[in-house]
Amino acid sequence: MKNTAKKIRYKRSVGDRAISVITYFIYTVFALLCVYPFYYIFINTISANNLSEKGKILFWPQQVHFTNYINLSHISGLLTAAKVSVGRTVIGTALTVICAGFLGYMFTRETMWKRKLWYRLVIATMYFNAGIIPWFLTMKNLHLTNNFWGYILPLAVSPFYVILTKTFVESVPKEMEQAAEIDGAGTLMIFARIMVPIIKPILATVAIFAAVGQWNAFQDTLLLVTESKLYTLQFTLYQYINQASSLSSLVNNATSSTSLGSSLASAQTATSVRMTVTIVVVIPIMLVYPFFQRYFVKGIMIGAVKG
Question: Are the CB atoms for 159 and 123 separated by under 8 Å?
Fold first, then answer.
């Protein structure tokens, strides 16, 4: 006797189709609204600077050139600031991920001494903040002003990341940990050899959040650093936005002896400086997302706080 599988086709009503069309339209418009600001800034960096200054570049680039990016090399301190930003992002992200992963794991171990007390103390810092002045005095007393580690150590432990990691670890079967303990594995061995490979999705999620936070940070530079060699790229951008007019004159003077500065279309303006530096600052962190995207949704869903 032969069983024939019948395909059940769902006939969509006119109302369902209308809702689908409206939904796709809304999300398409929303996506365009999100993408357009980046597109707008980019086309203004490669268009004639005199037209960009007048606000005439809206949808399509005109008189395309790339001298804005070439002239950016004439700005002093930009390369040093980029090195500082990359350094703090890489080191800070790695330390934050390690601390979040290890603390999230330790707070699930019943053998940890006073684990509930330590967990509550860490979480309490999410709700209580002494303010900028006590924070600054503490950083000064710890000799973290005008110090590269002032970017790293204060952000090493984040309660939010610890909560995400702890909740993720709690979803891992306890039998795996117990089997490793029977085989003689210690706490560090279990964490490094068993837990880390399993909790990669949440660690990748934490890495994205931490990297974006480190890369975009500039207020700590404003408050803690007076030495220009420790300025970050974001703080340098902040300065350039405030001093774009004088900076454009500086770049034009530096390139006046070459053909790059001789054209009206390529002569630097306050708008071209602001937008070019913005693109240079934004592009690197945007390139991080594709490498971690496959972990992102899974990490957030499993590591979310359970109600």
Answer: yes
Per-residue pLDDT tens for 28-86? 999 899 888 888 888 888 887 777 777 777 888 888 777 777 777 666 777 888 889 88
Apex 300 CA angle, 155 and 90, nearest 5: 35
121: exposed, middle or buried (Cβ count in 10 Å: 0-12, 13-18, 19+):
exposed
Contact 288, 208 (CB under 8 A): yes
- Candidates 178, 188, 172; CA nearest to 106 is 188
Cβ(286)–Cβ(152) below 8 Å: no
What contacts 252, CB < 8 A, 6 or more positions away? 261, 267, 268
Distance CA 112, CA 103 (A): 11
What domains, with CATH codes, occur in the chain? 14-75+243-289 (no CATH), 78-229 (1.10.3720.10)
How many beta carbons lie within 10 A of that of residue 119, not counting itself? 20
172 within 8 A of 195, measured Cβ to Cβ: yes
pTM, two decimal places: 0.73
